[in-house]
Amino acid sequence: MVRVTTTNRRGVLRAGAGLVVGGALAAGCDTGQAAPPHASASAASPSSTPSATTPAGHRAAAAPRAYPGLPAQITHGPRTRPQVALTFHGQGDPAIAHSLLATAERLGARLTVLAVGTWLDEHPDIARRILDGGHDLGNHTQRHIAVDDLPEADARKEITDCADRLKRLTGSIGTWFRPSRSPTASPLVARLARAAGYPHVLSYDVDSLDYTRPGAAAVTRKVLAEARNGSVVSMHFGYPDTVAALPDLLHELDRRGLRAVTTTELLS
Questions:
Q1: Cβ atoms within 10 A of the Cβ of 232, count?
Q2: I want to staple 172 with a disulfide (CB 3.0 to 4.6 A). Which of 12, 22, 51, 247 is the partner?
Q3: 148-156 long-range contacts, Cβ below 8 Å, gap at least 24?
Q4: Model confidence pLDDT, tens digit, residues 189-216
């Protein structure tokens, strides 16, 4: 991954943050295309194994992997390394998603996106865009309903339907699974996720609460008050406050010496 210094980041913030945030805030349904990802930026773990051969020019889609010694439900990474994982629930206006991805890439950060299957159905290009930007991509169920409350057959279908979308679009079922409408999976859902090919459930230890629309400053304060070495932060696509918060959040994390990396890199 390209390392961006605090000094460089300040220059990037001045040059680009206003344009990205302004566009997302001014038009909630903006359909403009995102800027292309930085050609040399990459946060993929060297230990990640591609699950399929991809067309020339595309990043290989990594398969899920087991992390021996880690629990079935992962809430954070090692507390000994100055890294954090910003993880995003993937749905909502694709223009906001493109803005977040482009902003993160300009500032040298890589994200983890847990995509909703119906969102992928509506915007199939976004899966490849996420991977080609060097980000992690995972499964956040097909319809983003309360999967822990479903009967077994319905819960299984929520997981496998989204996995099938990811497999069709990228060649992999995605690197991670996160249950919808709950920070943790029930024992049943955790078992179904393992059966579908996900050795771990990805939870988090910091909730940005950006979905409550508290304003960009509040989102930034909430994350910075709780993030530390190894934190996994829950955030969302689809909210302009999150776009507005991201530059300042990344700047302050960098000032504290915390790199924003993919979950794969956090745990590798």
A1: 23
A2: 51
A3: 148/179, 148/181, 148/182, 148/185, 148/186, 148/188, 148/189, 152/188, 152/192, 155/188, 155/189, 155/192, 156/192, 156/195, 156/196
A4: 999 999 999 999 999 999 999 999 999 9
Return the structure tokens found at 67.
């992390």
Q: Whole-angstrom Cα distance, residue 132 to residue 58?
A: 6
17 within 8 A of 216, measured Cβ to Cβ: no
pLDDT tens, 215-236? 999 999 999 999 999 999 999 9
By C-alpha distance, which of 53, 84, 50 is closest to 175?
A: 50
Tokens of 26: 């001014």
Contact indicator for 85, 261 with CB cutoff of 8 Å? yes
- Burial of residue 143, with CB atoms counted within 10 A of its CB: 0-12 exposed, 13-18 middle, 19 or more buried: middle
What residue spans of the chain are helical by DSSP H? 6-12, 18-26, 94-106, 117-122, 125-132, 152-170, 187-196, 216-226, 240-255, 263-267
For 241-252, what is the mean pLDDT? 96
CA distance 241 to 172: 31
pTM: 0.79
In angstroms, the CA 242 to CA 245 distance is 5
Q: Distance (Å, rounded) from C-alpha 41 to C-alpha 31?
A: 25
